[in-house]
């Protein structure tokens, strides 16, 4: 059997299994292993011979798994995850929300804007959108509802704020993208900063307009009054979170740290602050380490599966056939790019972010390289599309996370309705990044 046929059917099988909600790690490892065995055992013009394919297929699986895990850059993943959990239990991340809330309490939609900043700061430290939505949802949504905020506005704000974890460094998606495209993770982190800021500003604009058009959706808390001393105290209280952001972003941009070193320094800082402030209890530390272990193991299993899947795709030559097919269509570069954008938006409706990215990169990266487009810029576009997928129905992982947190207060369809308003800002930011690549490339280029 032709290897390209095996590769094509393997991709279709992986897609179907993912839609059926089979865990992505099992899908990638299982499909790649079986199809690699078929490719070796059922060569063109010959009969199927199981014995002929078994040994090289096992060697492919073993070598790819071993080589990928023994990668120094991968150590930043558990370090950043641990730093995020420690920062949360030491209340570093929630201090951002408390500080901004004091300053913006009289601004239209001030509590919602504070929630956006809190989510942005949380995600900048933890690098996890789902963790951000889950943790900040328990804090911000009840607080806004307590002061009479519209349920749709309150829940949608945190659902959208949680997506910032995909774009603002450190981002697990950027780390995985760098591994599979051999791009600098430092450059990717820096490339996500300006688009991340634009996204936050777009969300703030939506909140302000919403609050001005519907005064009852975001009433100003009349019983809350803060003095200048209170504002100063709140600003000072947020310094640990600011310090962590400076370590990660400033350290990388200034050439002081690599991304891995920044992760290690961030973890040490969070641990020392938590211990000295007596906010980090022993039980919370143990829980943080357990959660770090679980999340890291899951991500590594997925990443190893993706590495094996990429090797299987290369073995079957299906990528070359796909690129040749697209070239044969005679499409302009912008038309191909539009198709790629639509592909990610559609897949994002049904698959999780990591699954969508790892499944598609072996096919779209050769196309992008063939068009002469910058892979750092394209990485930002991909992560932005995956960010949109986190809140796009029918799956919308962030929306379901928020719904699980506040299901008694807000219904799922109501959250999706609120998210739709924020999606306008998201799509505008995406269009700006696509139309003006310098938005993403300015900081990486200035570092060089």
TrEMBL record:
Chain segments annotated as coiled-coil in the UniProt record: none
Localisation per UniProt entry: Cell inner membrane
Residue ranges of the TM segments: 12-42, 72-90, 110-132, 153-177, 189-213, 234-253, 259-276, 297-322, 334-363, 422-443
TRAP C4-dicarboxylate transport system permease DctM subunit domain segment(s): 11-438
InterPro entries on file: DctM, TRAP_DctM
Membrane topology: Multi-pass membrane protein
Alphabetic keyword roster: Cell inner membrane, Cell membrane, Membrane, Transmembrane, Transmembrane helix, Transport
Keyword Cell membrane included in the entry's annotation: yes
Pfam families, alphabetized: DctM (PF06808)
Source organism, top-level taxon: Bacteria
Subunit record text: The complex comprises the extracytoplasmic solute receptor protein and the two transmembrane proteins.
Reported function: Part of the tripartite ATP-independent periplasmic (TRAP) transport system.
Listed name of the protein: TRAP transporter large permease protein
Organism of origin: Marinobacterium maritimum
